[in-house]
């Protein structure tokens, strides 16, 4: 399976504090990478570095190129949901998606937007103002916004935060389908390890800004044995 992203010796400092130290990893097409670590472990910093919101102090981030219809090479596209969600509360879900498409030059035809709304289960509230959405509905819209343009790489930072059990279940099912339907690679951070374990195919575990483990789900299952995933994680970081 081809690499869509390669990171070599990535380091980020804020003043004298190193928040990510010599991080290296390869990310393959169509996989879901579960990004695990306590607060301050470097998860959000890593995602911000990948999508270019901040610059590293050292190291290299290499994205794969893909062939366009006219045989030219272009860099992969990235969709991201990091920290606060950007949407217009007085506009409908449909209008929010169309506004982003127009701003970024994406296909924002009626069929494309309706397909996105259907993908995240919001087709029945397409004309409802987003300000009246529940937290779970807003999070599903945020994922739809991140999927505009069908990105090859999708970065999701704590997309399950603040959701009730039903909302968590709905968002998890949406995330699980994305690689199957779009062949998109996902890097997903979450503190809810049981839910992360249900969707991730590979796990990247950080501690104090350093890579502690990069392991497939099958190998993790063998390694943790009968331990619940949260107990395995706590044992590992100690």
- How are strands sequenced across the largest beta sheet? 7-8-9-3-10-11
Instruction: Output the helix-strand order.
Output: EEEHEEEEHHHEHEHEEHH
Residues in helix, %: 25-40%
Query: Radius of gyration, rounded?
Result: 18 Å
Count the helices. How many?
8
Largest sheet, if any? 6 strands, mixed
In short:
This protein has 238 residues and is an alpha/beta fold. It is 35% helix and 29% strand.
Keywords:
alpha/beta; 6-stranded mixed β-sheet; 8 helices; globular
Explain this structure to me?
The protein is α/β, with parallel strands linked by helices. Helices cover 35% and strands 29% of the residues. It is built from eight helices and eleven strands. The protein has a six-stranded mixed beta sheet with strand order 7-8-9-3-10-11, sandwiched between helices. It has a three-stranded antiparallel beta sheet with strand order 2-1-4, with helices on one face. A hairpin with a 5-residue loop joins strand 5 and strand 6 (73-75).
SSE map:
Blueprint: E1 3-14, E2 17-28, E3 32-36, H1 43-50, E4 58-63, E5 65-67, E6 73-75, E7 78-81, H2 93-104, H3 110-119, H4 135-146, E8 153-157, H5 165-182, E9 185-189, H6 193-199, E10 202-207, E11 210-216, H7 217-224, H8 229-237
Parallel strand pairs: 3-9, 3-10, 7-8, 8-9
Antiparallel strand pairs: 1-2, 1-4, 5-6, 10-11
